């Protein structure tokens, strides 16, 4: 199974737990959402309106760090994945060649992903 399928399937496993199993443990279905989370949503609706926290320079800086870091990790992960050298023989399977078990040559070239940065950065 592909890693992104596993990552997105965690949300599907979380939703039944959040909306079915947790209210059973609390003993009620009808008022769980309102009593637990309504104050949370009211708080998050009032604070940005009253204090204009979204336009604060430190908040903007933090958001740029978060989104920039996620962009960096996504680009690095895609470049690492694309630079895997896959060579199979009759005695080893595709899984063993990707992970590098039983190979004499290296599977991952540490220099290859950095060669694509000048090409990829103008696109972003």
TrEMBL record:
GO terms for biological process: photosynthetic electron transport in photosystem II. It holds the Pfam family Photo_RC. GO terms for molecular function: chlorophyll binding; metal ion binding; oxidoreductase activity. InterPro entries: D1/D2, Photo_II_D1/D2_sf, Photo_RC_L/M, Photo_RC_L/M_CS. GO terms for cellular component: chloroplast thylakoid membrane; photosystem II. Its main location: plastid. It is found in: Plastid membrane. Coiled coil: none annotated. PROSITE patterns: REACTION_CENTER. It is a multi-pass membrane protein. It comes from the Eukaryota. Residues 1-27 form the signal peptide. The keyword Phosphoprotein applies. SUPFAM superfamilies: Bacterial photosystem II reaction centre, L and M subunits. Keywords: Acetylation, Chlorophyll, Chromophore, Electron transport, Iron, Magnesium, Membrane, Metal-binding, Oxidoreductase, Phosphoprotein, Photosynthesis, Photosystem II, Plastid, Signal, Transmembrane, Transmembrane helix, Transport. Belongs to the reaction center PufL/M/PsbA/D family. This is Uncharacterized protein. It comes from Solanum commersonii.
């Amino acid at each position: 199974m592909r890693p992104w399928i596993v990552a997105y399937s965690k949300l599907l496993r979380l939703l039944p737990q959040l909306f079915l199993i947790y209210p059973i443990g609390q003993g009620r279905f009808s008022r769980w959402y309102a009593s637990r989370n309504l104050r949370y949503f009211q708080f998050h609706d009032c604070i940005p309106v009253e204090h204009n926290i979204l336009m604060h320079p430190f908040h903007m800086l933090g958001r740029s760090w978060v989104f920039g870091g996620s962009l960096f990790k996504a680009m690095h992960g895609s470049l690492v994945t694309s630079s895997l050298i896959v060579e199979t023989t009759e005695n080893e399977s595709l899984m063993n060649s990707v992970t590098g078990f039983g190979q004499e040559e290296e599977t991952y070239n540490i220099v290859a992903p950095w060669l694509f940065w000048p090409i990829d950065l103008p696109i972003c």
